[in-house]
Amino acid sequence: MVSRHTITHADELYAGDAYEEGYSPDGRRGVEVSHLKYTKLGAPLAADEDMFLNSWALGSSASSVGLNWVPEADGAGATSASPTVWTIYAASNGLAPRNITITSSGDDSDMKFNVTGRDIYGNTMVESITGGNDAVASGVRAFAYVDNFTATEVTGSVISVGIGNTVGLPFALATVNDFVLLNIDGYSQSSQAGGATSYALNIGLGASVAFATEATSSNGDRDVRGTVNLLADPYLPNGTRVFGVLQLVDHSTRPKAFGVPQATELT
Prior knowledge:
267 residues, 6-stranded antiparallel β-sheet
């Protein structure tokens, strides 16, 4: 039986009997307990442009905005033609929420594709992704589950919906310096490739505490906790590489630890 107990709400905890005048000028003994948190992300699946929906389209008969998607074929991650929910969290065998990608066969650069889903803690979240011109458009928010896709207007393009290589973090990232390292199959950034090669990463900061909680209709909204964009092999998810992240967590308030509340409405 595992038991958990929060022993104090103090902003800082000190352990041990060590004392150094310059370190603890108020006479406090001990060394501050670390705020570092290591989280296993499991073995995320490889990026898949048609993970959920493959060759779905909004038919020419659609006459109003916000219409639901009309199924033509299932993607690899869809469990039926009209699933209740598309799952990223469990399908990736770990704690690795991912960004959503929209692939258009034509020019959808003037369209918004709206995604409604939930994060790893079950909180409802939304994102509006601007379409591409015969290209892949990538979202920036990390979804664990997706409940619905809609579009703001009719398109004649064939649309595929999938997941990218951007992985969501479990705790809020205020600055890039709070991200300490990525671990892949037991190798940290300093030891992978003999320590000579830095990870091909792009660390996306979470929304600051003062950032508006409402999403806008642009693709520039930040994830509330932050993300790691895995850019190239040998660091890309492939379903077998086991990932973990070490980050500094500010546990003084809920927004600082877990990010501002998720946006639930598009503005």
